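Write out this protein's structure.
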Amino acid sequence: MTAETSQTLDRGLRVLKLLADTDHGLTVTELSTKLGVNRTVVYRLLATLEQHCLVRRDLGGRARIGLGVLGLGRQVHPLVREAALPALRALAEDIGATAHLTLVDGSEALAVAVVEPTWTDYHVAYRAGFRHALDRGAAGRAILAARRQPVADPGYTLTHGELEAGASGAAAPLVGVSGIEGSVGVVMLSDAVPDRVGLRVVDAAREVAEALR
């Protein structure tokens, strides 16, 4: 900690991060151990976070993330979009195809950022806000593949004609980004996607992931 930082705020943010990384919640004792502070400090932190609905405690006393984070989450998409745009622009220009960043939204895949190439005579129209089932299209299938086999380099997923007749897609999941589940991909008017495109998509997904960390 430095003179310019707040120890209490730092601890509160660490509590939220710890709770976000668990599905079953944490007890005061567990939080105390992980933070390296006494239980009284943890009680005060939780009480403050509860007042803002950022944390809730169940009947068993375990602390969990509260619904108040949803209000904060509504502002996440614009921030994610801004961070991803440089890599998406480079991808679209390099490949000559429409590039997109897709995030999980409930049971659907949601395109939150789309960049079209500037030099092609034609390309697939794909708009931010477009939704589709996770099990259809390269973007969603790449996310599902990463769920089944979470590895450092999951490769890429290819599809053809699943979302638009005559269009093929390639996508690679975001890896190592806490709290965000998504993929980077391209869609093009082609019967198949060349291997070099798939590899380039993997590189772009890695660039976006690094920008979001």
